[in-house]
Structure formats: structure tokens, C-alpha cells
Amino acid sequence: MPPDTFATPMQRQLTPKEAPTNTQKRDDDRASVSGSEGESSGEDVRADPQSRKRKRSMKISCELCKARKVKCDKAEPACGWCASHGRLCVYKERKRPGVRASYEIDLEEKVNRMEAMLNLLGSKVEDHIVNDHVGRAQPAHLQSPTYSQGRYRPTPSLTDVDPRSTPVPTSATWRPELSRHDSISIRSLVGDDGLSHAQQPPFHRQLEQDTDLPPYDLLYSLVDLYFKHVATWSPILDRKHTFDVLFGRAVLEEPDRVLLFAIVAVTLRFSKDPRLTIESRKHYHDISKQKVQLYGLENPNIQALQALVILAIDILGTSNGPQGWNLLALIARNVVQLGLNVEKSVYLAATPYPSISCLQAFAVSQPTSWTENEARRRLLWMVYVLDRYTTVSTSFNFTLDDIEVDRPLPCSYDLFSQNEPVETKWFRWPERTETTMNNPDNLGSFAYHCEVLRILSRIHKFLNRPVDISSHSEVQQWRSTYFELDNDLNSFLAQLPGDYGRISQLCHSDPASKIANWIMLHAAFVTSVIRLHSAAGYPIVCSSYFMPNQQAMQRCLAAVDSLKVIAQDVVDSNGLDLLGPPFAFSLWVSARVLLVHAAATESAVDLKHIGFFISTLEIMGQYWEVASRYAKILDRLVNEGQRAQEPHSGGHQHQNMRSFTAMRSLAYELNQLVSQRPGSVLSPTSTRLTSLNELEYLDVFDSFNYPRLRPASQMNSAASKVLAPGMQNISRFDEIVRTPNGSTNLHAPGGQNEWLEYRGDAG
């Protein structure tokens, strides 16, 4: 049997120079996985000038170009890219032709699988002959075309269809080509229903599922793109191990195949392959998404969770809505049920019999290596990270609560890939008092990212707790917690390693280095600062005890400027494709702070600053659609706010145009309206018609509607609503601060209201 019998059509269309052999593919994989950009092992082909001409004909692309998957001009002594970037250009000789050492073993396994498939088909034919009519059991080549096509409808092969007439790749288009004799003998004698999926041999199932995947060379490129654009900030998989599993085995197991589907779904957005049309991208994405979801629902295991997490990144990168929230809720519950949220020292052995015990039904096997156990920790922490980013923009509770997590923080990626066991800082809930080893050298940027999100979790819970702003004791307690969280943020910033302060320099020196997660960490810290201080700087409701604060405003604006500087460095170095949806969310939060500031102070928005955030989100929208959605909402509201401030030709403002202050007030009114609870189940209900603009006001301003008030029945006394410039003020009559002329002026922070300087205990 020729070795390329089961090659894809695209592989057979390539010339020998274009289609790399299996040995060359594995060499390229090793070069891209283990070789650094500035180092290479092996003898330089330029060592002997006399044999340069002879060796040049056998020379392939340089090691760096192979690792980057780009065309190399093979220039001497260095190719164009290496020369322009000052890199060491290394060429390796092409290996001698011939089959690899394990080729005979692989071929023998392939023959055995084919024999098993033919034996199964033979038994099916015998049963068919015995149980059916004699006339229907005659050979396929004697059957009439009407009978053969009318009952069985064999799937057309590429030999029957011109590929140029079917540009959209379907499941039949990418089917590995079999000979016409094989197609007739198998599909005409055994109907489509005669061979169930569960009875098919593994290799036959692999062929059937390969029809839903891109060609092999494109598939290899997509996995490589995953580690360049997604794994930089979501490091749950080891690159070398993943390539060995997906491309180094003769048979791909079902869990690994599902992981491959998830990688395809999330990385199609980064591929520029001309074969991927709009229709084919949608085809591959829809099939991959369906495969992962169905397998994840029916198979609660580690590989299914990894695939679901990668798919969740794809969905949350498209829209931050209920579809992603539901998937993440399923993942979080599976993490807890499988026991991945806690560190274990004893595992239960698997039994061949089904168990009704929850402890045994969801038991996972003991990890075979430290790297496998660390991969489970990283899986947990990535679920933790995604849960924080999706929940912090809402008033919901976290699906994976901090109190359920009892595992060490992930180690650095280098130690993870080297399979080197180390001790890291233990993640403890504040009530836990155990001391653990804390070696900063073992921690990477991903661990610090998880730590700052832990503080963000506490901020989210703190802000969602209702407070009676008319009660002096409750406001004092609120301040005490506020100062505690502020100190935690400052302490976290002080303990970060020196690389954190050199992000801007690293962006310009080497954008492809391991700094993507440092940038994501910076964005997460900015988001945490804004979430905490915006409640004090831009409160939506006020009282004589709870007033806006100028210092908190400045902290928010300084955080926005800090993120703008880092984002500008990333844009200048063309590195936005290395960052994910969480970075787009931080840009979205920072841009909204500028609108909230304009609404609270009744001033014009800084068009230069917010324009930068909008344009940056538009660039990220090329890869992550949710960023494009953010940019469109911001752009529409900025244009509306600007037009509302421009006088009409008659001296009046434009109709149906609201200022930023009016937008925020309307958003708060809508929030209060939908939050009302009926006094009785017999109370009448109603529906309020809302426009698209009003819903966008909620998207922008609802996350800044703090502090949360207690229900009116739980307040110390009756409250009244008093409109003030810039916000809706709900205060007791005797606690409203007024100016000498009797008008309210609660939006403008004054010196006597600088309560952030208070450092006493809660009273």
C-alpha cells in the first residue's frame, strides 16, 4: 500500500518541493518548539566555501523562517529577514531521503486496521445475504444505477466532482480520496445505516471525522497559530507535548481530536490562508463548535474541559453575552465536580462498573507526571480568570467562588514545559491563616494575573453589597473596607518583579517575547483600580455622609493614562494580535471612565484619549468581534454627546440627542426600573419600550452605578429623589448639602468632603 493512500487532496496537489515529508514536518516542529530564535544546534552549511554550491542545492529554509512559517529567500550568508533584524541565520542540511525508522511499524498498524475493517464489512455482507433477498445481494457492479443510487446514495468522491466547481469546502469536499473500486465495494454492499458509529474501527472513525477538519497542512498551521496568539495569555497547554499528541501519533484518540476541533474554532480568525473563504471559515467553525459542545456535555474529563475552555475563549471573544456565560457556568461546575479546584494527595482508582457515588462518578485518575498535574492547575486558573472577566461587568455572583479554590498558583511557563517540580505560593481565602512557601522566582506573569484578579473579586463583592448612605456607621464601615482593598492593590503592585516595570521597553525591543501576559496583567491591575475608585470618585447617589471625592477621580484618570501608554506601545509594535478579549475589556472599561467623568463634571469628553481607545478596539476587532462591538457603542455615544453640546441653527440643541449627563441619568433610571420588586404576586406587570440608544446607555454607564442602595423598606428613614447636575441624588431631606442659593451641588467634590483622607475605624 503506498504511503500516501490516505493523504488529503490538498497534499497530493502539492509538488514534491511544496509538500514536506513527515520527517521534515517533525524537524520543523522540533525547531519551532524547542529551538530559540537566536540559537541553533548543528553544523553551519557555510563552513566549507568550496562546497557551498553543492550544499546550497540541498539547503532548505533557515531555522528562524521555518519556526515563523514564512518563505525564506535562502540568501548567503544570512537571509533577508535575519539580516534586517540582526538575528543569527542558521541553515541545516536536508536529511537524506528514505523512510523513517518507525515507518514499517506504522505501516503494519495501518494494514492491521484495514484488515479489521474488511473483516467487519465481510460479516455485514454475510448477514445481508442470509437475511435479505437473493437479488439484492448481487455484486455492486451488477446492480442497476437506479437501485444503487436510490437506496444508498454514496457520498460523491473527489474523482466525481471537479474541485474548481465547488469552492466551498464541505464534508464531502475534504474527504480523503479512495479508489472507485473501494467506494463501490464498501458503500454499495453496506448501507449507510449498516455500520454504526460505535461499531466502526478507530481508523475508519478517524477518516469520517477528518472530513470536518481542514487539510493537514492548514491544520498544522492553525495549531501553530494557537500558540502564537492565544497560548501567550492563556497558557494551559504545553506546546511540545501538544504537537506530539496531535501530529506525532498514528491514531488520534477522540479526546485529543476534540481538543483539535477547539483549537481550530479559536484560531481560524488569525489564519490568512487563501483557501479559507468566508463560507469555509463558517463551515469549519460551526462544525468544530458543535463537536466540542456535544463531547463536553457527554464526557466530563480533563481533555473535554480543556477543549471547552478554548471554545469559551472563542465565544467570549465574539460577544460577552449569555451564550458564553452559560458555557462558562458548565465548565466551572465540572471543575468542582472533577475536584480540580483543590489539591489532592490521594486518588480513587477507576472501576469498570458504573458508580452512583458522586465522589467516584467524577473521579479523575492520578496524574502521571508533575507537568500533567500543573496542567490541571493551569486549567483551573484559566477558568478562574475567564469567570472573573465575564462576571465583573455585571451584578451577578461568580460561578467559581474564591472559597472553593484551594490550590497553589501556577508556576512559570519555563518550569512547566521543563517538567521541573517546584513549590509556589498557595492560594488562600483571607480567612485561611496557614502560611505557605512563597518563592517569587517560581512564579510567572500568569500567577500574578490570577492574584490581581483575586483582589478584583473582593472588590466586586464589596461594591455589590448594599449600603445605607444615610447611616453614618454603615458609611464608615464601607470606607474601612475601601481602604483595605486600596492597600491590597498597593501591596500587590510593590511585590511585582522588575520585568513589570519594563513592559514598554520590551514591547519595542521584541514584541514576540513572553510579555503578552505581562501586558494583560497591567490591564487587569488598571481594571481593578478603576472598579474600586470609580465608586468613590463618581457615585451615582450621594448623601451628606457619602460624597464624591477628587482624589478617587484622579486615581481613575491616572489608571486610564497608564493603560493608554502601554496600549500605545503595543499598537506601535503591531502586537495587538497577541492579546485577547480581556485586554479589549480593559480598554472598554478605561474608555467608559472618560465618559463617566464627562457626565459627572458636565464637561466635554477628551476626544483624543477616547478616540485612541476606540481606534485600538477597532484594530482588535479584526480578531475578536467583541472589541469591534465595544468600539461601535463608544463611537455612537461620543458622537451623540458631541452633537448634543452643539447648538442648533435656531439656537436650540439637536432633538433626540442627549448629553453624557442625561445618558447616565437615564441609564440609572432604567436600572432602578427593572430592579423594582412587586409588593404582591397579584400586582400588575408592564413592559417598557426601550430604544437601542437607551440599551447602549446601560452598557456604558450601568457598571458605574455605585454604591448599591438598600431597599427603601430597610432605610433608616424615608428617602426622596432630587435631581442634581451630573447624577441622580437620593438622600434624606435633612442630609442634602446645598449651596447658599439653595440648589443642590453634590456632583462637585469639595474640600470638606475629602473623606478619603479618613483612616479611622468604622463606627
TrEMBL record:
Concerning CDD domains, the annotation shows: fungal_TF_MHR, GAL4
Name the domain of life. Eukaryota
This chain's protein is named Zn(2)-C6 fungal-type domain-containing protein
Where is this gene product found?
Nucleus
The GO terms describing molecular function are:
DNA binding; DNA-binding transcription factor activity, RNA polymerase II-specific; zinc ion binding
Does the UniProt entry include the keyword Ribosomal protein?
A: no
Coiled-coil regions listed in the entry:
none
Source organism (scientific name): Knufia fluminis
Q: Which GO terms describe its biological process?
A: DNA-templated transcription
The record's PROSITE patterns line, in alphabetical order, gives: ZN2_CY6_FUNGAL_1 (PS00463), ZN2_CY6_FUNGAL_2 (PS50048)
Q: Name one GO cellular component term.
A: nucleus
Xref: SUPFAM superfamilies: Zn2/Cys6 DNA-binding domain
Region: Disordered, residue numbers: 1-57, 136-174
